[in-house]
Amino acid sequence: MKNLKLLTNPLNNENPITVQVLGICSALAVTVQMKPAIVMALSVTVVTAFSNLIISLGRNTIPPRIRIIIQLVVVAFLVIVVDQVLKAYVYDVSKKLSVFVGLIITNCIIMGRLEAFAMSNKPWDSLLDGIGSGAGYGLVLIAISTLREFFGSGSLMGFQVIPEGFYQMGYKDNGMMILPPMALISVGIIIWVQRSFNKKLIEN
Amino acid sequence: MKVQSNSYTFLYSTIVVLIVATGLAIFSTALRPAQTRNVELEKKQNILSSLRVKSDRATVEKLYTEYIKDSYTVNYKGDKVIGIDPFKVNLREELKKSPSKRNLPAFEATKNDSSFLVIPVYGKGLWGPIWGYMSFQKEATSSEGLPHFNTIYGVTFDHKGETPGLGAEINQPFFQVPFRGKKIFDDEGVFVSVDVVKGGANPISLHEVDGISGGTITSKGLEAMIDSCLVSYQNYFKLNN
Questions:
Q1: Where in the sequence is the domain holding A156, given as residue range(s)?
Q2: Which of A70, A84, A179 is the closest to B28 by Cβ?
Q3: How does pLDDT run across A4-56, given as a tens digit for each residue?
Q4: Number of domains in chain A
Q5: Which of A46, A59, A109, B114 has an alpha carbon 20 to 30 Å from B102's alpha carbon atom?
Q6: Model-level pTM?
Q7: What are the DSSP calls for chain B, one per residue?
């Protein structure tokens, strides 16, 4: 039961983006289309899960004075591996994500989970926490990118979903959706929707 | 040894760094072939796209062998250089050399029974490198002294990090299509290149295309790129037969 909570809490009550407001920068950058957003979500999940696991395995041996550096080395290692794998197997997407894969290193969610959770919990719990946090981040990313791709380009996953007839009747894609500010506004809308369902999140 | 002690800290960090370095080296070596292949496929896709042939990753190899008949490296005088793979020429390094020492890649193609020549270009945009391929159709008739390749058939440009919505638009069809039919030599066979004009090109001019509003520095960089790359090829264009 406790284990399940580790996985599901970050999806809703402790969502890294909509509740903790971490990792906003990359959420703005890679959500114009769904495909890069999904790849980014998977990459971040892999990195949070394994960095949590590795740090948790070594939590009793890591010298406290250099713990942040050790965490960074582990995260950087995983990110470089992810970047190399993307370049080798999904080259097109890796080109679209460009620098943002490298910037996963600085994603606050990862360091946050390492310091707050992995340094003081068992490996299995940490792995679950990492997967949960990555999935919570990914869920919001995919939600934003669905909104932005649908209204901004009229397509989902690259397939045209708004029929040609609509365009002939005068419908136009909303160019604003493609620009970064709309990502922020979408995050705002998602937070609003989430809070109207989840009363626990509302502060007094 | 105490976890707090200096020697433990040093030892620990040394070991971690060694493990990570070994791991990265293994990953990098194992994935290198797949990555090199991706870059090569992309290059071929770009070459085909400058010939107005659409390809995807699955079809590119087949289409490439179908259209590209020959590829080689030429020097400033237009003579073929033996022993240099045009695919491996690093254009950025070549452009740093003086024009007479450059090795210039050239790709010969046939499409619908016409001959074409594809030339790579490389230059500077506003924020980083820009590059592309330009294809030229062989002139139907050419008299003595006039170049055999003069008319642009198609172009493809790309960039590393130009401003989205402004300079980044150089990889869009609305910018690239107007290059078609433009000429790089004038009536006397003098090299004049193609200018990217701010504020609208003269519609009847054969040497001007429209620049991108708000992307002036990228447009100018692209103009300089075309000029500086093609100028080294001019003897080759005249010699080739």
A1: 2-201
A2: A84
A3: 888 888 888 888 888 888 878 778 878 888 888 898 899 999 999 999 999 99
A4: 1
A5: B114
A6: 0.77
A7: --TTSHHHHHHHHHHHHHHHHHHHHHHHHHHHHHHHHHHHHHHHHHHHHHTT----TTTHHHHHHHHEEEEEEE-TTSPEETT--GGG--HHHHHHS-GGG--EEEEEEEETTEEEEEEEEEEE-SSSEEEEEEEEEEPSS--TTS-SEEEEEEEEEEESSPPTTTGGGGGSHHHHGGGTT-BSB-TTS-B---EEETT---TT-SSEEE--TT-HHHHHHHHHHHHHHHHTTHHHHHH--
